[in-house]
Backbone:
């Protein structure tokens, strides 16, 4: 027995030694960051790769279907999410609304650039300037993605509540969630460091600029209830990029112009990006209109001055062919693209920051600061830019101002990824009309309900034993 034990131990020791030697063998088919990101141009390719992975479509669909912007169309297969019955193992969440894979992948890409970039030697002054810009873009994208993760899984302004893990280096290590206060200390530091490194001019709408950072800073401040900062940063954006005229406003959504925009994501037929397909399928040919998954809620459709508000005709349309066939004919047109059966059907760029949103951020922040004059002025200015013949209103109290501003966010920003998150941060319910709900139980999600936060997906819990699940969910 002793001899056998010695033989076994010797075999194990030899095996471990062999394994160690195998581990030490350098891979010949792997190009690491020290080689792949060796030049400034290599690092720019890395940043372009991060931009290419950006996706706001997930947030657009979530906020539309979890809140009160849409109702079921011709087929309905999203009962668990639309009716708030999801859990950590829900297939609908797994397939459509898992923010982990999307945003931490982008964060990893930019972190690799941030590690490699200091060692890239610029060949000339142009490359030296580009090197600085790339660092700014990487920091901006890292902050943006961490903020998106926070909205899905935290969305709390309380500093001691849990946010997420803030990844500052490429790592496969399991990390716990950290509290909101240190999380946003890191996020704000990234934005502050990024801003002076980025250009002011909007020469490339598909890459970050200083107004993009101002917009992100304004959003962050609004969510954290840091209202003075929200006023400061939204004002920076408004001063840089004015509101569109009523004549130009429809062109924002057809990509005929970039009015109000500091940053958007390119979407082309060849690379997919059919945002309109979130609501309606793509037609096989010009004579066949595909099925419609989601149509505008009656609550939203009927809230507009449909004659005078330019937003109504820009965001919605009635399709005569569908009406004649007795099919749902009131459609979301915000991302319509080109006509039925053409390559550009449902293709439109994804708009990330707009001046209209900044006016509403500043109005809400001013109302919270009891600057009712400022809040009223911003609300009236925005409405006058959208509604022909608009008559100014007076907001006499803070509560009245907040109510009007939240209603205006409902009208100004549908299908842009805000509504569900807005209701959560304001501690308001989702309240649907019965006509917009598949059943009476799906009319209301009460304010403060735990389902305003998504569960940490079960695969993440299994892969990372240090991560904490959100309250109300089991695995």
Residues:
């Amino acid at each position: 027995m002793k001899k056998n034990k010695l033989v076994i131990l010797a075999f194990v020791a030899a095996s471990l030694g062999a394994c160690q030697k195998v581990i030490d063998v350098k891979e010949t088919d792997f190009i690491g960051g020290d080689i792949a990101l060796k030049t400034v141009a290599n690092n720019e390719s890395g940043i372009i790769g991060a931009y290419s992975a950006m996706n706001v479509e997930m947030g657009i669909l979530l906020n539309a279907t979890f809140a009160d912007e849409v109702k079921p169309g011709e087929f309905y297969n999203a009962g668990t999410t639309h009716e708030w019955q999801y859990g950590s193992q829900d297939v609908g969440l797994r397939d459509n609304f898992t923010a982990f894979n999307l945003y931490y992948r982008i964060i990893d890409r930019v972190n690799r650039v941030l590690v490699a970039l200091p060692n890239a030697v610029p060949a000339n002054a142009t490359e030296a300037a580009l090197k600085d810009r790339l660092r700014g873009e990487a920091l901006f994208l890292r902050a943006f993605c961490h903020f998106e993760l926070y909205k899905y899984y935290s969305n709390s302004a309380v500093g001691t509540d849990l946010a997420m893990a803030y990844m500052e280096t490429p790592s496969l290590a399991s990390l716990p969630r950290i509290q909101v206060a240190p999380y946003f200390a890191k996020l704000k530091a990234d934005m502050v460091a990024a801003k002076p490194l980025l250009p002011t001019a909007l020469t490339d709408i598909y890459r970050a600029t200083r107004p993009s950072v101002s917009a992100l800073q304004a959003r962050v401040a609004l969510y954290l209830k840091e209202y003075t900062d929200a006023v400061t940063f939204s004002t920076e954006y408004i001063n840089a990029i004015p509101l569109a005229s009523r004549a130009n406003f429809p062109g924002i959504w057809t990509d005929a112009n970039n009015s109000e925009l500091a940053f958007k994501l390119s979407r082309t037929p060849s690379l997919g990006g059919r945002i309109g397909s979130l609501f309606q399928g793509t037609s096989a040919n010009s004579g066949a209109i595909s099925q419609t998954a989601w149509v505008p809620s009656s609550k939203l459709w009927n809230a507009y001055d449909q004659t005078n508000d330019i937003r109504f005709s820009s965001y919605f349309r009635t399709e005569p062919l569908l009406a004649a066939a007795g099919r749902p004919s009131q459609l979301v047109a915000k991302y319509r693209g080109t006509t039925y059966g053409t390559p550009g059907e449902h293709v439109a760029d994804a708009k990330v920051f707009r001046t209209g949103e900044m006016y509403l951020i500043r109005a809400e922040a001013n109302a919270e600061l009891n600057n009712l004059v400022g809040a009223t002025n911003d609300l009236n200015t925005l409405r006058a830019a959208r509604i022909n013949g608009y008559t100014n209103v007076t907001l006499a109290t803070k509560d009245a101002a907040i109510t009007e501003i939240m209603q205006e966010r409902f009208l100004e920003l549908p299908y842009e990824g805000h509504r569900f998150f807005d209701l959560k941060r304001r501690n308001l319910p989702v309240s649907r009309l019965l006509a917009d709900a598949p059943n009476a139980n799906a009319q209301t999600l009460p304010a403060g309900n735990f389902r305003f936060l998504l569960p940490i997906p079960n695969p993440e819990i299994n892969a990372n034993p240090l991560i904490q699940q959100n309250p109300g969910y089991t695995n």
User: Anything to note?
Assistant: The mean pLDDT is 92. The CA atoms of residues 9 and 15 lie 10 Å apart. The chain has two domains: 33-198+433-475, 200-270+289-428.
